[in-house]
Design a protein that fits this description.
The complex is a heterodimer of chains A (172) and B (162). With 172 residues, chain A is mainly β. In chain A, 9% of the residues lie in helices and 40% in strands. Chain A has one domain: Immunoglobulin-like (Sandwich). Classes of the chains: A mainly beta (172), B mainly beta (162). Chains A and B meet through helix 1, strand 1, strand 2, strand 3 and strand 9 of A and helix 1 and strand 1 of B.
Chain lengths: 172, 162
């Protein structure tokens, strides 16, 4: 009896979490969805965030991939849903300036979300991107973003810089 | 004992309510080649010369007479050379003046670098700024063997990645 109660207590949380757990590695590179239909957050690539410099003056101007991707998630009916973004460069031997890339909202289907109008500079630490207040029902909202490569003031050594922007959706 | 199991069951039920998170990712790329640009400007077409015997005897210095603007994403070195191995005579007079009567230096530095027809380093980047501005000082030594007249010399500035 004692063992059964103990086992039950261990299994219950696992069973509850299984409904929301991340679904494993992405299906295809460049468009790593956290989700198919069975998950709560999804990213769809509209225009790949690939940047190339062709002359030195481009270092001093922002480069923008408009309508780069669409972020969708189900809003919680009970509490705020927050989405954080952070960036990771695969080329660890090179120094990359903080805030080299930013995200700027292009459009959204939510008229209640709290979003900064100015671009959000990406860092290796999570930056708050979206706060969606609770909405009755099980509504899914979409947020389309531009990816901005910001002007440089310091050297960035010639190389190929692959990056991954990771979105984390939290519900309290 | 029954209370003990109740706590365990309650704890197990509360754990899922503490919160959860999900992730999604976007991948991208920045292709960064070596990018360097050098712009050289000088006022008044850089007409230099000796106005009197005193200047001729002691040479002449022109402060801040050439402007250099460097844009780069990596460390660099600016070098200078003369196009020819002698001044060219613009009027009467034989072309026997060596380029090394002209010396250049970055205005904040002390040592002058004589010009020759071999590329010689003049300024080496000492910071990681994309944009750097410099002015150059020019010193002209006395061309003792030259006849009076006008002489021309083309200077070639070049920049390369370190």
């Amino acid at each position: 009896m004692k063992k059964i109660i103990f086992l039950l207590s261990l299994l219950l949380p696992a069973a509850s979490h299984a409904q929301v757990a991340y679904g494993g590695p992405p299906a295809n590179p460049g468009n790593s969805n956290g989700v198919g239909n069975s998950y709560d957050i999804n990213v769809q690539i509209n225009n790949p965030a690939y940047f190339t410099y062709t002359n030195v003056d481009e270092l001093l101007q922002p480069k923008v991939v408009t309508n780069a991707f669409q972020l969708s998630f189900k809003a919680s009916p009970h509490e705020n849903t927050r989405v954080f973004a952070q960036i990771d460069f695969s080329n660890k031997r090179r120094l990359v300036p903080e805030g080299w890339l930013s995200l700027k909202l292009f459009n959204t289907t939510s008229n209640t979300a709290i979003i900064d109008n100015s671009p959000v500079a990406l860092s290796s630490y999570p930056m708050l991107l979206i706060t969606q207040p609770p909405v009755p029902g099980n509504n899914t909202y979409s947020f389309v973003y531009n990816v901005i490569l910001n002007p440089l003031t310091k050297h960035v050594r010639p190389d190929n810089y692959n990056f991954t922007i990771k979105f984390t959706m939290t519900k309290p | 004992m029954i209370f003990r199991y109740t706590y365990i069951i309650l704890l197990s039920l509360l754990l899922p309510l503490i919160g959860y998170s999900q992730n999604a990712t976007v991948q991208g790329n920045v292709s960064m080649p070596s990018l360097i640009d050098l712009e050289v400007t000088y006022p008044n077409n850089l007409q230099i010369g000796f106005d009197n015997l005193e200047e001729f005897a002691h040479g002449k210095e022109y402060r801040n007479c050439i402007n250099l603007s460097v844009k780069s994403n990596c460390p660099w070195v600016v070098s200078v050379k003369s196009r020819d191995n002698m001044f060219s005579a613009q009027s009467s007079g034989k072309s026997i003046i060596s380029p090394d009567i002209i010396s250049l230096k970055e205005s904040r530095s002390v040592a002058y670098t004589p010009v020759s027809n071999v590329l010689t380093p003049l300024i080496i980047s000492n910071n990681d700024d994309v944009i750097n501005q410099y002015t150059l000082d020019l010193k002209m030594a006395t061309p003792w063997n030259a006849e009076g007249g006008q002489y021309g010399l083309n200077l070639i500035f070049s920049i390369s990645a370190q």
